[in-house]
Amino acid sequence: MEVDEFMVPGEIRDEPEGCPVDTCHVDLLAAIHANDSDRAMCILGLGCQQVTLDSGLCWASRYGDVEMVSLLLQNGANPNAEVWGGFTPLIWATIYAPTVETILNLIIAGADINHSSTKRRQTALHGAVIRDKVEFVSALVEGGANLDSRDYLHKTPLLYAVQRGAISCVKLLVYYNCDVTLTGWVEGVSVSPLLHALAKGHLEITRILILAGARFDRPAISQTLTFGEFYATLERELKLEVRPVYLQQHCRVRIRRLLKPGFLQKLRQIELPPLIHRYLLIDEMDV
Description:
Elements: H1 23-33, H2 37-46, H3 50-63, H4 66-74, H5 89-96, H6 101-108, H7 124-130, H8 134-142, H9 157-163, H10 167-175, E1 184-186, E2 189-191, H11 193-199, H12 203-211, H13 227-237, H14 242-258, H15 263-269, H16 274-280
Antiparallel strand pairs: 1-2
Keywords: ANK repeat, Repeat
InterPro entries: Ank_Repeat/CDKN_Inhibitor (IPR050776), Ankyrin_rpt (IPR002110), Ankyrin_rpt-contain_sf (IPR036770), SOCS_box (IPR001496)
Pfam families: Ank, Ank_2
């Protein structure tokens, strides 16, 4: 993945502008860059300004250094500190960290999971989907991330997942009951996830979206496909008779919408026959 494709406005600044000189600042950041937790612990013991702690946490989160992140949080670093562009440690971790542990630590520490960057209005969930990191997506959604957050182009995490052909992310977002109808701007055209999946030939994603209640909406007809081409593609390639499928999904989609937000949590609390439970979870996605 090209990181710039997400939203990174620039590097984290080692010396924040307009801040008093902190003699610990350079030393602490050097220890973080060197992955030297013992040295960092000694420097923290001398006392550091808040801006130094926060800058250090952003860097440690970017590196995915779980031990350093924990150390900085214990010493008062702010999990919701913002650097240039409105980036928080959680967003940096989502863009760069190699494993999910840093993200989990920041969530536990109280990181604002739905914070968005200043310019592109993208959240950590957007970043996780763009990187096609399913374990990141799962951690963020379980932590309370807004599945339907929209960036400056009105693109949801689902639309990004469809753009990248990230089937696992699409399945996970649908499983957690995201809105499959929200449109966003792609190459100057407002498209739905379903239309984009069809246009790119992502047939498996197309099938998943239809099972989740996506409709071939009228405003999209003139852009790429006609109704006839749409039905022919699905019936020929996916062996789906779309009209009966729409009727079948109508009830399921309505119930799933009534259970938002916190769809899975609510479903876990309701005692239902296994058949109905699988029906509401769209069990056919994995067939």
